[in-house]
Amino acid sequence: AMRLESPQFQALFTPGLRGVAELFEKKNYELRIAGGAVRDLLSGIKPEDVDFATTATPAEMKEMFTSAGIRLINNKGEKHGTITARLHEQNFEITTLRIDVVTDGRHAEVEFTTDWEKDAERRDLTVNSMFLGLDGMLYDFFNGYEDLKNKKIRFVGQASERIQEDYLRILRYFRFYGRIAEKPGDHEHSTLQAIKENAKGLAGISGERIWVELKKILLGNHVNHLVRLMYELGVSQYIGLPLNGDLEEFDRVTKNVQNQCPKPMTVLTSLLKTKDDVLNLDLRLKISKEEKNLGLFLVKHRQDLTKAMGPEPLKPYQDFIMDSRETNTNSRICELLKYQGEEHLLREMQQWTLPSFPVSGHDLRKMGMSSGKEIGTALQQLREEWKKSGYHMDKEELLSCLKKL
């Protein structure tokens, strides 16, 4: 048996958690930390979210919290066995131990249990199937800790059974592989075989759920290896990726964006060859409007909008921003620079502030212009001169320039 006493674990014991723990103890219900938070704590990482599991049923928890005057929020999870209690400005999501009675590859009908091993058995990967007592005692039925130490990603029990319970687990396998495995290609043959045989099941999973996982894969480690694997195992066609994705461009761009914090869409666009690829991806994955527009922007400009030779390499990008009428062109240009591997220019661009055009129609009226059309034309000409000067000319210089035009 192993007992955890790390500072990350100790830091979880807020007044809220102490209060919740006391209640469960008083009623003799077991309460343990579950899933991803245990994996993070064992890796020395402070978990962002902590989920709890318990032997108490939802009805028992509701009764216990209500009589203690503790507020319950968001009752949506109740039919799946999850109760969320709010104590000391903190939410605690606590789920009754469950077994899956019926699964259809997307959803499961569950039955409550008090058997910790049975609950662990229905979880996806061994590294996500552990529990941690509030005394620091580890409960590990499927060698998850061993796998975590060896950086191995394995399904709990039979891979094909776990996948058929929820086909999204194929992508979760890839995501955690990119997060935990040390090197590409360290898979069990039987796992890859199970993925290949069940890939078609992803066709029935909603685009929104797929996109959540895919985004994390795109920003994780071994992304080239994992995306190639998706093509080899026949996964790609069911998750909206183009049939003949440009894997060479993908390899090039993933190198360019390393350590640049790209948006997932920036990485993904390198697989896409045409505007239609972006639109088809959107149809399948229901990406956001902003993501779709970024994809279209990169496909359109990745070849034609490039740095200038000479002393002002950034100028074409700055001109593009100045000519654009859209508010987020600046951030799209930064993504384009990441895509193109222009690390040095990206840093300059991030420090550049949009200069404001120093001349207004009011200035031209003072000079005696009255026709709107004439003012409009003059402003346009002055803008061009300003642009040629690298946005350095001030109002006086521009207005004196107008006399020569």
Structure description:
This protein is of the alpha+beta class and 405 residues long. It has 4 domains: 1-150, Beta Polymerase, domain 2; 158-239, cca-adding enzyme, domain 2 (Orthogonal Bundle); 243-354, Orthogonal Bundle (cca-adding enzyme, domain 2); 361-403, no CATH class. Helix content is 49%, strand content 10%. It contains 21 helices and 9 strands. It has helices at residues 7-10, 15-26, 36-42, 58-67, 116-121, 144-149, 159-165, 169-180, 189-198, 207-218, 223-232, 247-256, 264-269, 275-285, 289-301, 315-323, 329-340, 343-351, 361-366, 372-388, 395-404, and strands spanning 31-34, 51-54, 71-73, 82-87, 90-96, 98-103, 108-112, 131-133, 138-139. Strands 3-4-5-2-1-8-9 form a 7-stranded mixed β-sheet. The longest helix has 17 residues, at 372-388. The N and C termini lie far apart (86 Å). 34% of the residues are buried. The mean pLDDT is 93.
DSSP strand count = 9
**Major sheet strand order:** 3-4-5-2-1-8-9
CATH class of the largest domain, named Alpha Beta
Name of the CATH architecture of the largest domain:
2-Layer Sandwich
User: How many strands, which pairing sense, and closed or not: the largest β-sheet?
Assistant: 7 strands, mixed
Q: Which parts are unreliable, with pLDDT below 50 for 5 consecutive residues or more?
A: none
- The N- to C-terminal Cα distance equals 86 Å
Structural class: alpha+beta
Number of helices: 21
Give the overall form. elongated
CATH superfamily of the largest domain: Beta Polymerase, domain 2
Keywords: Magnesium, Metal-binding, Nucleotide-binding, Nucleotidyltransferase, RNA-binding, Transferase, tRNA processing
Family: Belongs to the tRNA nucleotidyltransferase/poly(A) polymerase family.
Domain Poly A polymerase head: 31-154
Domain tRNA nucleotidyltransferase/poly(A) polymerase RNA and SrmB- binding: 189-239
